[in-house]
Write a structure and sequence with these properties.
D-Maltodextrin-Binding Protein, domain 2; alpha/beta; single chain; elongated; 5-stranded mixed sheet
Length: 211
Amino acid sequence: MITLALSKGRIFEETLPLLAAAGITVLEDPEKSRKLILPTNHDNVRVVLVRASDVPTYVQYGGADLGVAGKDSLIEHGGQGLFQPLDLQIAKCRVSVAVRAGFDYQGAVRQGARLRVATKYTHIAREFFASKGVHVDMVKLYGSMELAPLTGMADAIVDLVSTGNTLKANHLVEVERIMDISSHLVVNQAALKLKQARLKPIIEAFAGAMG
């Protein structure tokens, strides 16, 4: 059995054409099904649905043989025990710093102010601000990041930005772009050895579908 870990939403949708190139079709729509394990047109291939941030962990510990994970999740995870053969160039976005409209972020940075930053990307944020010599206190959140500056709980947030529409709708402004993000194929290192004959064609099909 080959198990592929995916997260619902954009990564799932943009992985489907790559799976099709490998001759694999997921037989149920995750938005309509309550199942967390989805069958495919191959009896020996299945898809497990997990949180985006958990994909690297499932692959690392053998809960899945391979998965598709954003670069953000891989950096936060650390990448231990993972073979990362392909940057799939899908689900592109960026990690950015945002503040409420009217907050003088650049002035605060210039004056050496200590900033309170809300994020679930604590490793990325800490590395970024350290590289700029900015002192920060981290507030770990897992969702609704935009609320933190609006309620006065934080001066800034570090979060994924795609179109920027969510920031605008909540009167926030993107002030720094930390890094560009895309999703990568990750493979369990033990599975790569033990199931190479079955995994290699999938990896090659993904690579071929990218052009």
